[in-house]
Amino acid sequence: MSTLNDRIVRYGELRPCKTAFIDAHTPGSNQKENFTIIGGGVSESPDQHVHIRDTPGFNIGAAGQPPNCRNSLHSHTTAEVFFVLKGRWRFFWGRNGDAGEFIAEEGDIFNIPTGIFRGFENVGTDYGMIMAILGGDDAGGGVTWAPQVIEEARAHGLVLGNNGVLYDTKQGQELPHNVQPIPTLTEVQMKDFPETPVEAVVPRYVARYWDLMALSGKQPAKVIGTDALLKDKPGFEVDFLSRTSLDDSPITPDKHVVLMPMRGHWALRVGDFDTVLNPGDTCLLKPGESYSLAPSMTGEASLYRVTETDDPAGATWSGAA
């Protein structure tokens, strides 16, 4: 039986994987680190460490990258939500990454539409970190790479099999006899991925940190959900808490909840257990597990809270503004 300590992953204890994806050898992408915090995540490498294997209807992960390092263009069939924990990031999308882009600052959150190719890079001056919420229990089942990403990876020795496993030909690895390289999409198939302009994405799928701070003065700000700032049904809801959003009354959720501090130190009490959650920490709470939460020190304090819902694990993107 797991204890609450088993369901808290501290930022300083995160274990990265540097060979998680097909572009791990591609110049410009070969310094990125992937973190799988809750659930199996989307890694294609058997070297990926999973901190908490429970899947509360969604996955939690993170990406860490030095300046000028990028994550290559890919698409998801389920939700992919990022908030910037550290640094400054450029998100871009489209077949060649030039259909639209925007710069995300610390605390900003982006509910990336499904069905479009997307990528991101650290455009700050220091090592950066973005936290991820991925829809569904099997977040790795719906990832598609842009054709040029697969071709560039092959040129640098990495081949992704149709079994979802990476093989490094420069290390002498060969695909098993019953495994074929994952095929690149045809031109006809590529037409199913829209070249969505920035004005159709940013207003509907991006929430800025300081706007959320202003909205969370007396109660949590609803960020993602049917009646939230970013209206969607991706299989979870997200709200944003600041210093004055909650009192110290116990809360008893009927679904899984994940707490992800952005700024400040948060005192968490679950039954007789007391702890402090810090920026970059991740805590999984089970249904029926009463908790109270409050900032433990003076100064700026903010936290993202993710709650499981019964909705299917896909965003409601329809391609329309």
UniProtKB/TrEMBL annotation:
InterPro entries: Cupin_2, RmlC-like_jellyroll, RmlC_Cupin_sf. Residues 66-130 form the Cupin type-2 domain. SUPFAM superfamilies: RmlC-like cupins (SSF51182). This is Cupin domain-containing protein.
